[in-house]
Each structure stands twice: as structure tokens, then as C-alpha cells.
Amino acid sequence: MTVTVRFAPSPTGHIHIGNSRPALYNWLFARKSGGRFILRFDDTDLVRSKQEYVESIERDLRWLGIDPDRIERQSERVANYDAAAQRLKDAGLLYPCYETPDELERRRSRQRALGRPPVYDRAALKLTDDERAALEAEGRKPHWRFLLPNHEGNPFETQRTEVAWTDLCRGEQAVDLASMSDPVLIRADGTYLYTFTSIVDDIDMGVTHIIRGEDHVSNTGVQIAIFEALGAKAPVFGHHNLLTTREGEGLSKRKGALSIASLRESGLEAMAVASLAVLTGTSQSVEPVPAMDALVEKFDLASVSKSAAKFDPEELRNLNARLVHELPFEAVKDRLAGLGIDAGPEFWETVRGNCETVDDARTYWQVVAGPVEGRIDEEDRDFVARARDFFPEGEVTRETWGAWTGALKAETGRKGRGLFMPLRRVLTGMDHGPDMKDLLPLIGRQNILDRLP
């Protein structure tokens, strides 16, 4: 059996770091198992689904390192859903209902008032052919519900019916079908709900494992029943915890600042995002993993916690900085050139320890190439003016800074911050940055002299 998993986003917006978690979990699981990863767009909502979001999602996944083995679109598979729905209708497992949303809500309210669970009472099953015809003559169109197998012949006498499975993340799980309403699989306008289309697709595409958020746990029992009604064995399920904000709020497409596109555009590394999305909320330490192959080796669904995984943007920035500090010049050479930085390995090795993102290198390139608006405090003006006279002759090397400051210390008696800071400020315009002994050779003699008063 070839392990086959899928990620099935709805192209109605940009994916965010929360969406990336199931995408990455499925991709890593497939790669670790030598299996296949299917990207399947839930685009049956023709009003809200947009091609621009399809392209955006593909672009974001590939940036993260997820390269699908197969791409499908549900909008192109309606005939498959029609055929599967007819099979359930023929078997008496999909039945028409004519209640309006308001009527259903009033019925649920009455049940709650009587202390009963708001479960659909299957009243539509009692309708005669003449009653259904009369309702349709009024202009009502039916929605279709799946008859849950929670009875022994009489659907109006339900009994406890547990559907159990061994969850890859949560261990032994069970859901009682008697506590649930028959799910609607076809809307009154004839469109299919994702619950149904995803099951048909999973069967047709040979999906063996479904890894998704824990908010779907309660749906699993119903879905297993539908798999079996269609003559298929249900896949293995795994329900991981969800990423939330630091305050515990759920993430959504409306939180644009957390979209993968915005994180990419802010200069973050894909592996910083992937590392945080995968490792947060597990028993493993959250650390920057340099490459997807290494993350595949580290990935373990059994390590996923049952409590929420809180996403901290500051932690993401920290992970990113740690990754950037270790990036070799060859890994960033083209990106530096794209930023207008015409520099060799010495520049990157000097500045990378002070960069939170690769884009931050532009700040230090400005320091090296100029122009720089140096800063001189009034009490340092005479000291900086004298510094020019003590600047060593000859080639500027890593030893130049020590020789220069040593001579100035002997001449002026200054030491520590009072000796170093005025020179850093006048040459770089900054209070912090790379070690000056490494920075001076990059700035060069002429720029140094030009910046001294």
C-alpha cells in the first residue's frame, strides 16, 4: 500500500500559518513514508472561489517546500459526486428534506427548551409521495440528508452506536452516532457539501491517511459511516492540535498579517515558518531546522500535544534570525544581488550575525558603500576630530581597528564605550552592528577618511 495523503484548501482567500500546519504535516508524513501528496482544491463554491487564490496557494506551498505529486480541482469532478449520490439514494441512505433554515432553528429551540439535544428528528422520512409533491409545488426544493446507521431497522428508534478509530495523534477515539443529526450532503440548490465531496474524492484517489485539525474530530464518526456506505474502507485518521494566537484565538484568513504571502514578503525564511508551524505544540523543542529533509527526519505525529499550539510572532522572528546567522554566502548570493548588494563572501560573513532577515543586509551595505549620515555628540567632537590624525597608514585590515583605538587611548586616555562609540557613530551612523574590526576593511580607507571631520 502506497501512503497517500491530501491537503484540500478552499481557494477563497490566502492561506495563513495555521493552514500551513496541516499542509506541512501531510507532506512530511508522505515523504517520511515514501508516499504521495495530493493538493486538492475545494473550489465547488463558484462565487467565492477565485483563480488568483488557487495560484496564491500553489505559490505559497511551493515556497514552503511542498511540491505536490498531484493537483486536482473538485469543480472538475461533479459527475463523480452525482454518481455517488445516486448510489446512496438508490440504497435509501440519502433522503430529501424540505424544512427551511428558520423551521429547523425553531425546532432546535423547542428541543433545547425541553432539555433534549437538538438532533434532527427525521421528520422528512415520514412524508408521503403526495406530501413531498405538495411541498415542491409550493416551490420548495429539498436538501438531502444521509441516514446515519444508528438504528436497527427503525430510523425513529435510535440506539447508541459508537464508531471508533485509532487516531495518529490522539490515540483511541470514539463518537456516538446516536448523538448526532443526519448530516446534510446536498444543499437545496443542488450543490454538494465538502463532507461528501471529500469522501468521494478520497475513495477515488486512494487516500490512505487523513491528517487534519482537531476541530474535525467530531465529524469523523459520520464520515467513517459514509465511507462504509459507499463500500469503502475509511482511511487512517490523525487530528493534530490547532495553531492559535498568543491569546488563544483561532487563526483565520481574515488575519492577513499571518498569511504565508505576507510572511514571505516580510523577508522571513521559509524554513523558519515551516519549523515553527510543525514543531510548536509538540513535545519537541522549537528550533530552526535548516532544510525540509531534516524536518522530515524530525517529524513525529506522536509528539503532538493535545493542548493548543500558541503561535508567537516574536518566536518566528527569533527562529528566522537564528537561521539567517547560519546561512552560507552561496545560499544568499543571488538574493543579495537582487537587493542591489554587490559584495562577496567577506561582507555577508561580517554582517549576517546582525541580520534578522537577509533583507537587513541592505542596512549594512549602506554603511559600507555610503553615503552615511554620521553622528557626533558635542562632548565627542574634539575627540573625533583628533581621531583622523591617528588613523593608521597603509592597507585597512582587521588589525587596523585595534591599532587605531590603541593609539587614541594612549593619546586621550579614553577607554571602553567612550573610546569606541564615538568612532562607530561617526563611521556608521549606528550604535550597534558588526564588529568594527571586520567592518573597517569593507568600508575602506577613502570612505573612512571622508566620514571623519
From TrEMBL:
Signal peptide range in chain numbering: none
Extent of motif 'HIGH' region: 9-19
Entry keyword Cell inner membrane: no
Pfam family, any one: tRNA-synt_1c
Location of this chain's protein in the cell: Cytoplasm
Keyword Aminoacyl-tRNA synthetase: yes
Domain Aminoacyl-tRNA synthetase class I anticodon-binding: 378-452
GO molecular function: glutamate-tRNA ligase activity
Reactions accelerated catalytically: tRNA(Glu) + L-glutamate + ATP = L-glutamyl-tRNA(Glu) + AMP + diphosphate
Superkingdom of origin: Bacteria
Homology family: Belongs to the class-I aminoacyl-tRNA synthetase family. Glutamate--tRNA ligase type 1 subfamily.
Protein known as: Glutamate--tRNA ligase
Species this chain originates from: Roseibium salinum
